[in-house]
Fold this sequence. Notes:
By secondary structure, the protein is mainly alpha-helical. The protein has one domain (about 10-75). It contains four helices and no strands. The longest helix is centred in the middle third of the chain and has 16 residues, at about 40-55.
Amino acid sequence: MARIAGVEPEQAGWFVRFIYWIVRRKVGRAVLPVKIAAHHPRLLRSVVEMEAGQMAARSVDPSLKSLAEVKVAMLIGCPF
């Protein structure tokens, strides 16, 4: 359990709610790291830009990238 409570959608501004919508489409729910980063919208924007940059990188085949994400999540015990 995190020491800090995440920002709930009803407490969030329009930008954070938009990011939650995108995350729910991709993952299925608003995950805790995003909710915690939402306390500081500039930090959340930076995290989103970093993720977008990693997804846009073309040096590795997208299917191999997805497979690596699943493997790393399994190794560290990530629930999503």
